[in-house]
Amino acid sequence: MSNAYLIIREGSKWADVFRLVPGESVTIGRGPTNAVIVKDERCSRNHAEVFQAGGAWQLRDLDSRNGTMVSGDKLSGDRELQPGDIIQIGNSHLAFVHDLAQAFPDTSTLLKSAKAVDGPGTGLVLPVGGDDESVFDAFEPTMITHRKGQSRFLEAPEVDDVNDSSPKVSRAAAKLCRLAFELAKSTDVFSLANTALDGLFEGAHSDAGAILLRRRDETGARRSEELEVVASRSDSSHDYHRVSAFLASTVMRDGQAVMARNVMDDSQLGNRDSRGEILATSVICAPVRLEGELLGLVHLYSTDPDRATDPEDLEFT
Question: Are 263 and 18 in contact (CB under 8 A)?
C-alpha cells in the first residue's frame, strides 16, 4: 500500500505532517490524548478518527459538537478518504494525500533536481520553485492574506493559551531569554550555531540535529543555493544524518517551519543511514533568518518513539 499522510494546518499556519501507519487508527481532537491535536474551540475533545478498513483509509466523526466537513460536505457516517480530500474542523484544515508534493507544491521536481555536492558538510542544492498549486488552494479561507512564519512565543499570549498552558509557555519563554543572552556572547558563526543548537536541545524533544546555512558565494555573502552543516549534535549512539532534500527544499522555498511524525521508512521525510535505515521517528525543520533574509535552516529529529517532537517543540524551534 502507498504512503498516506495528514497535512495539518491551523488557520494560516502549517503545523504538522502526520504519516499514517497501516493498521493504526488516528484520533483527532482538542484533548491531549489525541494523536492529532487541534487547538480550536469548535473542535471537540475527541472529534474524529481516521482508520483503515478494506484496504482504504476511512474518516469517522465521533459525535462531535460541530461536525466535520470533508471537501465542503458535512460528514455523515464513515467516508473513504481520497487523495486531495480536505478535512475541515473549525478553522483547521487537514489534507489527506498519498504524495507530499500535493500539499507542498513544487517539491515534485525538487527531489529530481537536488544533487550531491562533493566534500564534507555539503550535499544539497536548492532549486528555484515554480507555480504549482497546493491541494489547500481551493479551500483557502478568504480571511487569510498571508501565512504566518513565526512562533507564538514571540507574540502576546491569548487568554486561552494562558489558561491552558501557562506554565509550559512561561518555561519556554524563559529558555528563549536565557538562550538569547548566551547567543549574544558568541564571537563567530560556529560558536553561535553550536550555542543555538544546545538551546534547542534543551527546549525541544530531540536527540540529533544541526544548523545548516547557505554556502558563501564569491562575494562572501550567504546566498548560495547549497547548504552546509555549520554545527551538528547527536546524543544517541548514531551519527547525525542530514535533512532530506524534500524537507529542506520545502522550508527554504516557503520560509515556514514544518514538523513530521511517524517518519520511519519514508525517505522524503528522513535520510537513510549506511544500512539503508531511517533512524528518525519525528523531525522538525525550521528556517533561519537574518533581517528577513533566509540564510539556512534548523534540523532537529528524535530517534526515540517515546520522545517524539510535538507542536510545542515546533513553536519553540
Answer: no
* Torsion, Cα of 303, 177, 286, 167 (10° steps): 60
Strand positions, DSSP E, the chain: 4-10, 13-20, 26-29, 36-37, 48-53, 56-61, 69-70, 73-74, 79-80, 86-89, 92-97, 208-214, 227-234, 258-261, 282-290, 293-302
Q: Which helix (H) or strand (E) holds 165?
A: helix 159-184
Structure letter (DSSP) for residue 124? -
Strands (E), 235-281: 258-261
Spatial neighbors of 57 by CB under 8 A, at least 6 apart, are 4, 20, 50, 51, 80, 81, 96
pLDDT at 61: 96
User: Residue 43: how many CB atoms within 10 A of its CB?
Assistant: 24
The residues that bridge with 80 in the sheet, in sequence order, are: 58
pLDDT for the residue numbered 1: 56
Distance CA 218, CA 227 (A): 15
Tell me, what amino acid is at 63? D
50-88 residues labelled b (16+ CB within 10 A) or e (exposed): bbbeeeebbbbbeebeebbbbbeeebeeebebeeebbbb
Q: How far from the centroid of its chain's Cα atoms is residue 121's Cα?
A: 23
In sign, the C-alpha dihedral spanning 281, 99, 288, 138 is negative
Q: Would you state the pLDDT for residue 111? A: 31
Q: Is CATH 1.20.120.450 the right assignment for the domain spanning 4-102?
A: no
pLDDT below 50 — which residues of the chain?
106-132, 139-148, 153-154, 156-157, 159-165
pLDDT in tens, 200-252: 888 888 889 999 999 888 777 887 888 999 999 999 888 898 888 888 888 88
Q: Which CATH number fits domain 143-156+168-316: 2.30.110.10, 3.40.30.10, 2.60.130.10, 3.30.450.40?
A: 3.30.450.40
Q: What is the pLDDT of residues 100-114, one digit of tens each?
A: 776 665 443 333 333
